Amino acid sequence: MSSLPAGARSELSAQRTRGLAILAQMWVDDGYFCPEPRQQGVKYAFTNCGVSIGLQAIRAMPERVRRLNEFFEHYRSGDEYDREAITHVMACCSHYPGHLLRTLAPADSLRGPRGARRHLSSSPHSLRARIGLVYPVGQSLW
To answer: Which of 41, 54, 82, 131 has an alpha carbon within 20 to 30 A of 90's alpha carbon?
Structure first.
């Protein structure tokens, strides 16, 4: 951002501030962002994973990102989105954003908030079980 003109940096900062304020209003304490303030019971995994990736790209709201990922690891909507592969791809990107964003060193994207290595659970509802992923730590998907 430092290579941008001062006016552009100022506008980006203002957009970031506005966006984070709106997201703060849309947070539901159960562990997800609702699509609109009046729709607090509506949960979209794909959208929330996208929000998670964006927040991680700007290194904002890490606790909410963690809670969101935990919430959608076990949430089932009971519709076709539970079976659609793209939802699971977004979930993987949300858990490992460094491989998508390419702004973090690969090892950093595999570390949790306290430096511990993240792992894919072996539970039957884990990401690994849902998409059949065997993912060696430190190895890129792409």
So the answer is: 41
Question: At how many degrees (to 10) do helices 85-95 and 45-57 cross?
Answer: 30
Q: Give the pTM.
A: 0.66
- For the ranges 16-20, 41-45, 136-140, the lowest mean pLDDT is seen at 136-140
E-strand stretches of the chain: 27-28, 32-33
In 17-142, which ranges are E strands? 27-28, 32-33
Distance, in Å, from the CA atom of 48 to the CA atom of 102, rounded to the nearest integer, reads: 20
Cα–Cα distance for residue pair 4/15, rounded to 1 Å: 15
Tell me the C-alpha distance between 99 and 33, whole Å.
Answer: 23
Backbone angles phi, psi at 111, to 5 degrees: -110, 140
Structure tokens at 88: 């699971």
What is the pLDDT at residue 53?
92
Q: Give all strands (DSSP E) within 7-110, no chain letters.
A: 27-28, 32-33
Percent over 70 (pLDDT), the chain: 67
